[in-house]
Request: fold
Amino acid sequence: MSDQSVSDSTTWIVFGVLALFIVIAFGLWLKYLPRIRLYREKLSALNNINAKYIRLCRERKDLVFHFFWAVDRGDSKEADSYEKHVLEIDDKLDRLREEYLAVEKGGAAALLEQSKTKNSTHKID
Reply:
């Protein structure tokens, strides 16, 4: 065998291994792409729910402060208004907590349910 034929066969072996690696990498990418996409959507949904939850907690804290301030001033009508608003926020926080746990536990099915509830009549925002 000449040096040229050894060099040619070595080149073909390298190209073959490289092509095999590319085919395997592409196959794995196609196989795991939907899972990666669902995982990223799940994380995005959890982050959005968490951001809403934190915003509502801060709003609730401010309302409780203003409630006690109204009570100290003797303004019962304003205190009742604040109390009603705090109870509404508590309901929203409970719904967000349930939604977070559902998305965390259920993954894709919960994401579909979440998108359906976004289109429903009650909004959390």
Notes: Residues 3-118 form one domain.
